[in-house]
Task: structure prediction
Amino acid sequence: MPGAPPRTNLLGMPRPELETFVGDFGAKPFRARQLLKWIYRRGEDDFARMTDLAKDFRAALAERAEVTVPEIVADRTAADRTRKWLLRMPGATGSEQVIETVFIPEAGRGTLCISSQIGCALDCSFCSTGQQGFNRNLTAAEIIGQVWLANRELGRDPDGEHIITNVVLMGMGEPLANYRNVLPAMQLMLDDFGYDLSRRRVTLSTSGLVPQIRRLAEECNVALAVSLHAPNDRLRDELVPINRRHPIAELLEACWHYLERQNGRSVTFEYTMLDGVNDRPEHARELAKLLRGHDAKVNLIPFNTFPGTKYRRSPAETIRRFRDLLVQGGVMATVRRTRGDDIDAACGQLRGQVVDRTQIRLGSRLVRLAVRA
Ligand code: SAH
Ligand code: SF4
Result:
């Protein structure tokens, strides 16, 4: 006997699609908004408990739909209260994979750092995720599911509000390489009936996929962070291989266009401080020249080391001097505090467990292309 048809996971489904889905049951579009509120604002995954929906509708939903979130395999809290979850994911190769989600509590806000892919194909030389290769894109359900799960695990503050106030796509993966699934997930973060986060509280970090930055400028309104890491193409080609396809001038053009289209405040440029590589005074002066006069902020990230890396973290004094030179050069700059060091939850340390990965590394592919050209 054929089994029952598989249930549709409503998590990650964009609002218009959800409206069509409930329409198939003969329900009005506002039922979709009620469902969104239940799923995201209230964190409910059991239709039976959605008490303001008609009983028949709830029963029909239970038959045809579900709200399924990834499974937590580990949950660790660091001395500084940074918390990291490992989530089990089926891999593209039939293997079992693990991704990471990190919660960073700070005075007055709580930031969730989420992953967008299992591994990453872009092969930045100083990034632990990149060094592991790429397995697959996460689905929209798996991306928004990280926010859903973390909200459930963290509970509410004394006023009944969510503890997560900000979401950053700075975990594993390159979000703009998974545009198709990242976009609906971000729209649900911004949706009044979803998480209702303001556009300044959702930040997408990219290593610089220019065509997708331009597309995003037309389609979604979130804060943009760009992983620059070098003030000239020679150095950036080495650190961030995608630069060989989209060099700095082209990338910056796309950033200023984004701000203009989105009426945004500023672009944040991430700059990981690598001892003796990109941290010299002349690099700071060159960077200031690039960004001066634009709505740009630089966030200096002390390099987080991982086994097998050839890089070292710049000394604190070098980082401070670099920041001062940027500020003197007319560019706003801050130094990011490292968090969750004792549980390997810091930037670029999110390794997950990319086992059995397909060895796709854009870096080496680009090198081959360049050699052939
Ligand atoms: N793929 C996206 C988002 C994930 S990485 C991007 O590259 O922007 C989030 C940030 O951590 C990026 O700025 C990345 O360059 C930085 N990063 C990667 N590895 C790091 C490391 N080992 N130490 C410090 N920062 C690192
Ligand atoms: Fe991928 Fe970002 Fe790491 Fe580069 S820094 S390899 S783009 S996750």
User: Anything to note?
Assistant: The chain has a mean pLDDT of 90.
